[in-house]
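Structure, all three chains, one model.
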Amino acid sequence: MGGEAADEALRGDRVSVTVSPAPPRPLGRVPTRRPESSASWRLSDRIGLAVAWALGLFFCALTAAIVIYLLVQGLRYVSPHLFVTHPTAGFSETQTGGFLDPLIGTGIVALIAMGIALPVGTAIAVWLSEFGRPAPLARVAEATVEMLAGAPSIVLALFGALIFESPLLGFLSQQTNHVVLGRSFFAAGAMLSLVALPLVVTNVREGLQAIPSHVREASYAVGKSKVATTRRVLLPAARPSVVTGAMLGLGRVIGDTAIVLVLLGATLNLQGAGGPAILSTLRGQGSTMTSYIYENAPTGEGNQPTKAYAAAFVLLMIVLALNVLVDLAGRRARELRWS
Amino acid sequence: MELSQPPPVRRLTGNEGNGHATRSALREERNGAGRAPESGFVSAPRRVTPATVAIDRMHVDGLSVSYGQKRAVDSVSLPIRQGEVLALIGPSGCGKTTLLRSLNRLTELTKGTSYSGQVTLDGLDIAQMEPTELRRRVTMVFQQPNPFPMSVFDNVAYVLREQAKRRPRRREVAGAVRDALGRAGLLDEVADNLDHPALRLSGGQQQRLCIARALAANPEVLLLDEPCSALDPQSTKVIEDLIVRLRDDVAVVIVTHNLQQAYRVADYVAFMYLGELVEYASAQTVFGSPREQRTRDYVSGAFG
Amino acid sequence: MDEYIPTERGAGWSQDQRAELWLVCIVVGLLIAMLVFVLHAAWPSFSHNGLGWFGTGGRVDGQIQAIFTSGDLKSTPLYVFHAWPLIWSTALITGVAVVIAFGSSLFVAVFIVEFAPDWLRGVLEPVVRLLASVPSVIYGLLGVLILVPLIGNHLITQQEKASVNPTVQLSGYGLLAAILVLTIMVAPIMIAVFVNGLRAVPRNWIEGSLALGINRWRTFWMVAVRTARPALVAGTVLATARALGESVMLSMLSGGVGFAPNPADGLIFLFEPSRGLASTILFNTDELSSPPMQHTLYAIAAVLLFSAVMLSFAGWAAKQPMKRYGVIA
């Protein structure tokens, strides 16, 4: 066919070659196509791929090892009575009780911290995303949130010690002879909210910014004010992001040790500060699961490795559960994606 | 042959006639006399296209491509020759892009594609070749210019550097880079600073850079997927001239939805509709006196 | 921020908007106040020591003890403090961990995005997320109960222990354990950011490179990784900030002694104990009642905060040259 066309071309004319369409053939078995294989690559490329595989598998193996090890040790030492017994001072494992107080302590700080971080964080995120005027203030706010995200929790703990020891805030913790203790659930919860705040702000903001402008315009077009739009239309639409931010923040709050060690006093049991029941607890000292593990590790004062394992196992399970929830929330967020 | 009168494409050609497609008329037309052909397709003067010798490069043989259940390309057979520009035309969804992408096995990047039939390059079945090897010999330029975030020099040298067994020095590739830029018609504009960031070039320059990049390794076939659709008319003209100049060294296959462009640059035209190859003929025939009614309808603008 | 601001009748902003503005101002004000407070409280320690604060001189543990005891009302407050061993420990542990984590995280991220089979990718992504959310005290616990005995009993020989016995105790609590666990702690953070960055690379660039006949590995490396460099910078900055501020795990694993590990010691160097800046604060928080101690600890906190800010700035600066070649930053 090529030769023919060449001859025709030389004569300065072209003969059109029409190919009438063949009747459609069903797609039958074809010889397997040769895919791209790494055999043709340079040696350095193949080594690179091998390294990538090795590291990927290593990470999986490592996580499996950590989880399984904690599972095995945890299940060995965890027994239901640990959940309901108060920790007591003692010398041997059998005498030291369970971790009821730390468990309650974790719950309390989580509640206080998220109770502050969620509303405040959402408000800031809404302000940044929807209003954002004056612009310099918005930039400062963004920078501050970023700085907070990068601030080590020990620094926040120290700062918390500074302000909660001042007489102004003495009502939030114990006071003896004009010396404010500065350690209480209030103090710890407040500082922990700062730890969760950047995560809430970032996630809610992202969720709001993902909503296309035509949704807002539609709402304005029917006469709703900006505030009403935000409250009734935008926030509900961004709910998966709010949930994600809340759970990520919660994860960080539950896992934090430094602030708890500094601002909660790390006492074995919940120690009230006197006064009406709930207030007494909140103004008093206590411990959380993280500080309990810290104290009971061989490097801590308690040195009860079995209790430490048990508590670590429980804590890990809580964190795992949170992770799964974040996954689900993320999946829902993807389903509700705006096209 | 009774022809209905479809609305003609409104273009000023200068000579309106009731042309009869004779050999002399064709030659005149080829030289830009611009008689109105039978099909009702009225176009701007055709560029001068000297006769060339055509060498067979690729052959598509009963190729069918399906995405899952949907048959995108249905039993297409046609030759691809060096020395010719082949234009694939047809309405949206007709399978011309799929056909183009199956020529360098880019369709394999999508999961769930199945194939039958065969495509050969210089007699070798491309399905049995190493994909990277195939794509060095059959390169592609895309609709959106996609230069890499590097300098102009690095973009063009990219292929040469990565294909070599060991990384060549700048001196070694500099000649080939200038060559490729020259063939793409970009050398004059960037010669004074080859380290200029590629993304700072204009759209037309970026596309020519992509063409230079594709030419750097001296491929045998150049595939162009609507290369000018994102560009302004001035850049389009430059690139079309370039395509016509290139066809002696490389077999060129261009997908375009712009019939005028196909008329300007193509030697052979394949009209596809709903996956089928409706007509494959020289540009004169397809735009002048097409055999199939569907071709006639499409070319005269009855649908598109 | 949307450009469209509906013009509402009535004067100025609504009550809700005002309230929100106040809230933002208060929170931002509080946080800026924190910065100012910390610097103010840190000042006495810096002013007493000048630049020598960062240098060497004496045993830092002894100095800390002296500072604490001078805090009661009877003695004059002592502020002498040379923090070099602490700074060196922090820099060493953070630096090495980040470098190792960077290399491994990049490979794992590339693997996750492009080269892992689907089933493996579905396992790896949750795995990385899980590793990132494990509390640091659990990492510390595992390190203490598994890694430290391993190193102390099997890797360090009796000879080595004896050779440095008067100065420091080699027991498995030291650099090696700290660096290993810190690497594992920060790698998931980097991997998550790298994966996001790599996924954001426009698909047509990758296709374009493949269509030129470049193999998948090179294409991904040369095009995607290059394009994702801002994400690489961001991930590294995030991970380094995390590593700098890590107090709990390091206080459990790094040895707890104010000693500057000496590379000239050869292999023993890996096992030498030390203590970083953040861990030092943690160790001494019970002693906050002593004013000189307060000032010293705040000085350390100020250094940490300052490093975090400088880190952010360095990250921003690193992204600027990338804008030149069109890599979106």
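Confidence is low (pLDDT under 50) at residues 1-26 of chain A.
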